[in-house]
Specification:
This protein is elongated. About 40% of the residues lie in helices and about 15% in strands. The chain has two domains: about 120 residues, Rossmann fold; about 60 residues, DNA polymerase, domain 1 (Orthogonal Bundle). One of its GO terms (molecular function) is single-stranded DNA binding. InterPro entries: ERCC1-like_central_dom, ERCC1/RAD10/SWI10, Restrct_endonuc-II-like, RuvA_2-like. It comes from Babesia ovata.
Length: about 210
């Protein structure tokens, strides 16, 4: 990648942050070119669509990394921020659920991939088709806000879809959901102490 070509090529290629130098996914770009350039994110697809990359294996070894990045990016938010999570560990469910809560709370969309090639394909899709609207990535993005919230709740360990529907029905906003009290949860049929503890932990424990 030629750093000097970054400014000239921004409209026609993906701008890659120097911190991603050496990431194997870069070798798998097929339908776009890429240049190394300055961006607060890892990959700048357009002015309004930018993405971070996170390997779940790296996340397990460096728990504070994604929190520090997101904290820094509070001052540099774009309209459509993404986190591309590469699933490269066994039994990833709890780790994915943890990151899902973080990304949803902070307004990021998380996209999963299972290899460097798939990660590159996701970024290419954002670059090539992002201007058409983000619905092309996943039909679920078109679902009503309530259904999105229900899926987030159901991603918490021990909580099932029936529980998530019951919990979401008690709140009219995400703010109310995040401020829900233990006694309110305990009054919901099917929620025992273990589930209540898991839900409160997901809502209240620090990310980093």
């Amino acid at each position: 990648m030629d750093p000097e070509a970054a400014t000239q090529g921004e409209k026609h290629c993906i701008v890659v942050s120097p911190r991603q130098r050496g990431n194997p996914l870069i070798r798998h770009f097929v339908n776009v070119t890429c240049v190394e350039g300055e961006t607060h994110y890892d990959y700048k697809l357009t002015e309004s669509i930018q993405a971070l990359f996170l390997s779940l294996k790296y996340h397990r070894m460096h728990r504070g990394y994604i929190g520090a990045r997101l904290k820094h990016l509070r001052q540099h938010r774009v309209k459509n921020p993404f986190i591309v999570c590469q699933v490269d560990i066994e039994d990833p469910q709890d780790t994915i659920a943890e990151i899902t809560v973080i990304t949803f709370t902070l307004g990021y969309r998380m996209l999963l991939s299972w290899s460097a090639r798939e990660s590159a394909a996701v970024l290419e899709a954002l670059k090539i088709d992002g201007h058409k609207g983000l619905e092309f990535l996943n039909p679920r993005l078109e679902q009503p806000h309530l259904q999105i919230v229900q899926r987030i709740i159901a991603s918490i360990r021990h909580v099932n879809n029936t529980d998530s529907i019951a919990i979401a029905s008690r709140c009219s906003t995400v703010k109310q959901l995040m401020q829900i009290k233990p006694e309110q949860l305990e009054n919901i049929h099917g929620l025992g102490k273990r589930k209540v503890k898991a839900i409160l932990s997901a809502f209240n424990d620090t990310f980093f």
